Sequence to fold (265 residues):
Amino acid sequence: MSFKVGLDDGHGVNTAGKRTVALKEDIMFNGKLRKKGTIIHENEFNKVIMRKVEPHLKRCGVRYIELAPTDSDTPLSTRANVANKNKCDLVVSIHANALAGTKWQTGAYGLVVIKTKGCQSKTNKLADIMYKHLKTVDFPSNGETKYGVRVDTEISGFTLAILRQTKMPAVLVELGFMDNWNDVKVMCTDKFQNECAEAIAKAVCEYANIKYIEEKKEENKPSTSDSNVVYRAIAGSYSNKSNADKIVKELKEKGYNAFVAIYDK
Fold:
């Protein structure tokens, strides 16, 4: 019987308080421009990474089940019951962190792996393996933060239900702080999300003693198109040049050769 993982994208999309502070500037997230002054919900961060974990697990022959597949705030007891009923071998609950969350701060940052107080030795093993892989993610703090692997009561003052009520080894991963602007700028990038997803999948495979199968990179094939034709990808049109400049800057940071072109209306 194959190994099965319970994947939990923490909270619901409209859970009160679980969101960034109002964005300092326009930023691209999950293929869309998020405007200055708006917010990003924590569940949006959580879900996009969870969905990136899934193909890695499938490629390695690891089964998975989503504990809260809708955008609603599924009760924690329900999530734990789904994992227990489906006899998952382990649970990974994916979150984004915050302090008060009402204003930007710089004191707390980076990645945290949380286990519950008095957990079994298998959970200790899972937490250590998970942190070993996540701290390789390219992050402002290089993943190696002052938090590392922590017990839930040290972080929140109480045990966390998703860790306490599940019968199998379970960890909760906090992938950056939503009220730290330097973290958020990285958390919004495909690169960070992809690296986190791969790290989580590698940790699962190592814990389960399953060989991790690297994703096959598509080889550059000779183009069969007309060599005299070029195709342009346009990111958008703006009446304010500063908005166009911001998009170009973000695209250049991702390695694209972008520029601003001026056209008459």
The first helix runs from residue 42 to 59. The mean pLDDT is 88. Residues 4-208 form a domain with the Aminopeptidase fold (CATH 3.40.630.40).
